[in-house]
Prior knowledge:
The structure is a single chain. The protein is an alpha/beta fold. About 35% of the residues lie in helices and about 15% in strands. It is built from 10 helices and 12 strands. The protein has helices at about 15-30, 85-90, 105-120, 125, 130-135, 140-150, 165-170, 185-190, 215-225, 230-240, and strands spanning about 1-5, 35-40, 45, 55-60, 60, 70, 155-160, 175-180, 195, 200, 205-210, 245-250. It has an 8-stranded mixed β-sheet with strand order 5-2-1-6-7-11-10-12, sandwiched between helices. The chain has a two-stranded antiparallel sheet with strand order 3-4. It has a two-stranded parallel ribbon with strand order 8-9. Residues about 85-95 and about 95-125 have low confidence and may be disordered.
Amino acid sequence: MHAQVVLFDGFDPLDAIAPFEVLSAGGGAARGQLAGELVSPQGPRRGGRGAGGLALRTTAALDPTRPGLILLPGASGRIGTPDADPHLDADPQLDADGVPDSTDSTDAALASEHALASAHALGPKESEPIPVLLGRTLTTDLPALLKAAMENPEITVTTVCGGSALLAMAGLIEGRHATTHHLGLDLLDATGTHAVDARIVDDGDLVTGAGVTSGLDLALYLLERELGPRIAHAVEALFAYERRGTVWRNTGPEPAAF
């Protein structure tokens, strides 16, 4: 089985790296039955800037035809409106390596350089709010790739934190059950998604996690679901971590009101 962990500019590092490590350890415990890699819509690149300017290298393009898992993290930023700083609001043109395009005019290049330097110095929490980061991602090739992946019966799309909000904003999970960070549950409802206030929500080929640390629980659950509980327990013991919360599924009797 193959797991593609998707990076985009502004991603939350913990959303992506915690599940990546868990899934990688699971692959080792399962004698190579699971392998993961960092991917982006653009393909191999030095970029995918996360909180604090953290940049990771992706090794491949997101492939919606490849069977297995796709894991989409959320964004790391502020809750609220951006400061009135034209440099931070600038949307610099980046090349394949995630740096300003040298073909821009001198003024645009200087503005872009200032914006990147400010964002890297301050980190996403002090630069741009999460809705802005997610909205910018919607203008890339990522939504179309995710749509193709969700139409592929051999792929399970998984998300951590605001990753499900990104799917919802792209109109890809209307009528589905999902969770996200507790501050984003209303957004899911507003897009026609059935928001569930749970740590993990398993809706078949869509499995979503709540806040950032739920990425650990999500990945361990995926190991249990795909490779068995003994593999998941071995990784849990290796990481000295005990899973939290109940996995919600749309099965069983409807509970009575309390």
